[in-house]
Automatic annotation (TrEMBL):
This is Probable RNA-directed DNA polymerase from transposon X-element. Keywords: Nucleotidyltransferase, RNA-directed DNA polymerase, Transferase. Residues 1-32 are annotated as: Disordered. The keyword Nucleotidyltransferase applies. Residues 15-32 have a biased composition (Polar residues). One of its GO terms (molecular function) is RNA-directed DNA polymerase activity. It comes from the Eukaryota.
Length: 141
């Protein structure tokens, strides 16, 4: 079957439109070359982005607030195995593992004894250390 030339084939042979870059006005002159345009743009950026000239004295009240320990943290509370079980049951089992390669499916299959052990591990880190804790550890040694 002979194919006749279509109008599209004739259109492809026509010269394509050239991309032109218009000149930029730099002060009272026009920047036409790429070098002149880049220099004009550099001058524009250096005039726009200047350091802030504000010389405000530092407020001692604000400095004292910023230097406080745990300024945005709420007090931590104890966890229970039941609370861990609730959190784990709400997790999406198809979620991909993190850098430790522990998946939600693995956590859901943990036995209760393991959850109790996790709460025992986490709870002392949440409690503030007191003399009573040190005494208990000294008796164990």
């Amino acid at each position: 079957m002979d194919m006749e030339p279509t109008t599209f084939e004739g259109y492809k042979s026509l010269p394509q439109p050239q991309q032109c870059s218009p000149p930029i006005r730099s002060g009272s002159t026009w920047a036409r070359t790429d070098q002149e345009k880049s220099e004009a743009f550099a001058i524009h950026l250096s005039s726009v982005f200047k350091p802030n000239d504000a010389d405000t004295p530092e407020d001692p009240e604000i400095e004292a607030i910023l230097k406080q320990d745990l300024q945005m943290c709420l007090p931590l509370r104890h966890t229970t195995p039941k609370e861990l079980t609730k959190i784990i049951s709400k997790m999406n089992p198809n979620k991909s593992p993190g850098f430790d390669l522990i998946t939600p499916r693995l956590l859901k299959e943990l036995p209760r004894k393991c959850l109790v052990f996790l709460t025992i591990l986490l709870t002392p880190h949440l409690e503030p250390l007191t003399y009573r804790h040190f005494g208990r550890h000294l008796k164990l040694l």
